[in-house]
């Protein structure tokens, strides 16, 4: 039976703005307060989806969330009509209004952790929504994320869904941004790779001093248990706390893995050699041949990696066995990074080609190609069981492009977030989107 890695990209929401909400994310903070262009952001993301579809890769789409999140504001004490809640929040606590308007759910690498059926005890694909409790604006996402994923992967014979972990610091979970999977073929048993920034209960593990470590070891272990993963099919690795303090807020800012290959920066991990040896040993037991590509700090500094998002790229397997790297335009603009990539692809190694995409709107808010997609390994039967409305096709691309052109603003500033009309625009757009994607009622305004 054939198997595939399907990339489900997050559709940028109508309230995409530069709120500078993510402490530790250099791009997010440095572009704070600039005016954004939600329409351009959504169209840039759709263009990447279309391009990958046309290259022959399986591509899907994951819907954005309702924003501003008026229900979240009500839980914080704002009352009255929806318009009055927004007005009061704008007057009394503008940062809370900005947080409730964040379109950060576009970065669906943080939506959940996914384990394919070849790895799990009950032979189903497992999803655990990420609690994202390190940042308030992201911690409010997981209830809607769970409903959307449930509508996309609804067949209980093939798919299992788990609620987010307890929303406390000890179980901080950032989803697939700190998770990768290595395998010979997507439909075969593999090794799941969980990267954590700190341990909540074991002080033997060093922690960063400047920026928070968002993923705990304990959260990663809990997800592995929920998914029924075998001990011999899991490797845990600690992210280097020094690179977290340089702006590497997720592992996917400093490393990316796919198939049998890990592409990583020299400074990405602690105890790198023992971690690589464990990956090699465990993958060999299921018939795989683990390989790694280390980018030396002498060629690309951590600062270069953070500014260019070299590692927040998509590493894709092609039919001939070679690999394609999807990178943001910022990699081409960075002389050291681009020189390295030219050398990499001309060496005849594992990664043979680089394709560049313009994702400036997302990049300015701190998310590149890898942030925008959630990878789900599916066999033919499982793919057929996915809600067909969310699988990218030329007609769906046309419908979504027309939908964005119809509903999205081409400029959004912080003051615009206080306009109650923005909420009405968002709800109108999302109500239509659920019909396009055949999701049913997944948003609070459709349910309540």
Question: How do the strands and helices of this protein lay out in sequence?
Answer:
Elements (H helix, E strand, L loop, with lengths): L2 E8 L15 H5 L7 H17 L4 E4 L7 H6 L6 H11 L1 H7 L11 E4 L9 E5 L6 H4 L2 H11 L6 E4 L16 E4 L8 E6 L20 H10 L7 E5 L2 H4 L10 E4 L2 E5 L6 H13 L6 E5 L6 H7 L5 E4 L5 E6 H5 L1 H12 L4 E7 L2 H4 L9 E7 H6 L8 H14 L12 H17 L7 H4 L1
Parallel strand pairs: 1-2, 4-5, 7-8, 10-11, 13-14
Antiparallel strand pairs: 1-15, 3-4, 6-7, 9-10, 12-13
Keywords:
alpha/beta; L-arginine/glycine Amidinotransferase, Chain A; three-stranded mixed sheet
Structural features, described:
The protein has one domain (3-67, 102-447): Succinylarginine dihydrolase (L-arginine/glycine Amidinotransferase, Chain A). It is built from 18 helices and 15 strands. The chain has helices spanning 26-30, 38-54, 70-75, 82-92, 94-100, 136-139, 142-152, 217-226, 241-244, 272-284, 302-308, 329-333, 335-346, 360-363, 380-385, 394-407, 420-436, 444-447, and strands at 3-10, 59-62, 112-115, 125-129, 159-162, 179-182, 191-196, 234-238, 255-258, 261-265, 291-295, 314-317, 323-328, 351-357, 373-379. The strands form five sheets. Strands 2-1-15 form a three-stranded mixed β-sheet, with helices on both faces. A three-stranded mixed β-sheet has the order 3-4-5, covered by helices on one side. It has a three-stranded mixed β-sheet with strand order 6-7-8, sandwiched between helices. Helix 4 crosses helix 5 and helix 16 runs antiparallel to helix 17 (420-436). The termini are far apart. Mean pLDDT is 94; it is low at 22-29.
